[in-house]
Write a structure and sequence with these properties.
With 375 residues, this protein is of the alpha/beta class. The protein is 42% helix and 18% strand. The protein has 16 helices and 13 strands. Helix 1 (16-27) links the parallel strand 1 (3-9) and strand 2. It is globular.
Length: 375
């Protein structure tokens, strides 16, 4: 008999959690699972999820990202009703809001197997004391209603256990998988690719992909670029992504007179070509779970310079190739870019043995092992 599984995520933005949820929904064996996909409205990937064959998609207008007691209660009971009416056997949640409400609702509905994937905890040191502890308390309670806590990295698991979220036996590590072969084998004409963005392809080109939000720290990306430009004009910087800090970013670029050398190009449809065309991949995040873009860049054999934080550190140390710097130390990051510019570094194919556990198909098989535990 086929099992009914509900994949629940707050909003289908462009991010690692969304890509994992999307891949699972698309690739789970439809002969074994009836797949229901539940998300809030207004996501960048809403149209993409609608086009997946063999799944049922439900947009819940009350499932919203900011904390809102009124809408959160409505979403909670809407989810509970959905799980009961559709006789859901497995609830698999992603992202903090959907993770908390989805687990509460699944418990209330008597769902047999409740799984939450932690792509990164919602409480971190950049929050005020009150918000930090509200999220911490909710995560501790939600963990009690959960059979399995899937951490995308050991750093994520250790962080949760440090704050007593869940028990060790609840945790399992399954990487947020990416299409390793896509980034390994991507072909691109560097000259033609950067021509459309008015970037000199002969420059040493540093790039990043991410939301223009506090977490990804795009202001530091500009500060690093400004520092590099003081010493070498034959370097260009390009950032693929969009978000609420766009206006602030544009103001800072103008302030530093970097319009010709620093480009923010919005979201792109073929990240494999973007990364493949770069000389160095830069990641300025303040906090991470497991950064999928960093995995993608390593798969494309790009030298990576990233902030020395959980997730980034775990990955760079695992592959033993790349450079870490403390968030805020943009001068050191700029110095490393200039060093790399004058070296010819190559990643060997041995890297792909290490990246096996980061492949999306490996991830799928690991999740299926958990799903099969339902009677």
């Amino acid at each position: 008999m086929k099992k009914n599984i509900a994949i629940v995520i707050t909003k289908m933005e462009l991010g690692g959690a969304q890509k994992v949820a999307l891949f699972l929904a698309k690739n789970l064996d439809k002969k074994k699972y009836n797949v229901y996909f539940i998300t809030g409205i207004g996501g960048y990937l809403d149209e993409t999820i609608k086009k997946i064959n063999g799944i049922k998609v439900y947009f819940m207008k009350n499932l919203k990202h900011p904390i809102s007691p009124f809408f959160d209660i409505l979403a909670l009971f809407e989810l509970k009703k959905f799980f009961k009416e559709n006789k859901i056997d497995i609830v698999h949640t992603h992202s903090s809001k959907a993770g908390i409400l989805g687990r509460f609702a699944a418990k209330m509905a008597g769902v047999k197997l409740i799984i939450h994937t932690i792509h990164g905890f919602p409480f971190h040191k950049y929050q005020n004391f009150f918000i930090f502890n509200i999220y911490l308390m909710l995560e501790k309670i939600a963990a009690k209603f959960c059979h399995k806590l899937v951490a995308v990295g050991k750093d994520v698991m250790d962080y949760g256990l440090r704050y007593k979220v869940g028990k060790r036996e609840q945790y399992v590590i399954i990487r947020a998988g990416v299409d390793i072969n896509l980034f390994k084998n991507a072909k691109v004409n560097k000259k033609e690719y950067f021509k459309k963005y008015e970037i000199n392809h002969q420059d040493f080109i540093v790039g990043m992909i991410g939301n223009l939000k506090k977490q990804k720290n795009p202001i530091e990306f500009i500060n690093i670029a400004d520092e590099v430009m003081k010493k070498d004009k034959n370097v260009s910087f390009i950032f693929a992504g969009d978000g609420p800090l766009k206006t602030k970013v544009n103001i800072l670029i103008k302030k530093f007179n970097l319009e010709e050398k620093v480009k923010f190009i919005g979201w792109i449809n073929e990240p494999e070509k973007f990364i493949r065309a770069l000389d160095v991949f830069l990641l300025t995040s303040l906090w991470e779970g497991l950064p999928c873009t960093l995995v993608q860049a390593i798969a494309a054999k790009k030298f990576c310079i990233a902030t020395d934080i959980d997730g980034n550190r775990e990955l760079i140390n695992k592959v033993n190739f790349g450079f870490l710097y403390k968030p805020g130390n943009y001068i050191l990051a700029a110095e490393e870019i200039l060093k790399i510019k004058n070296k010819k570094l190559k990643i060997t194919d041995n890297i792909y043995k290490i990246l096996k556990e980061f492949d999306e198909n490996f991830m799928l098989k690991e999740y299926e092992k958990i799903y099969k535990s339902v009677n």
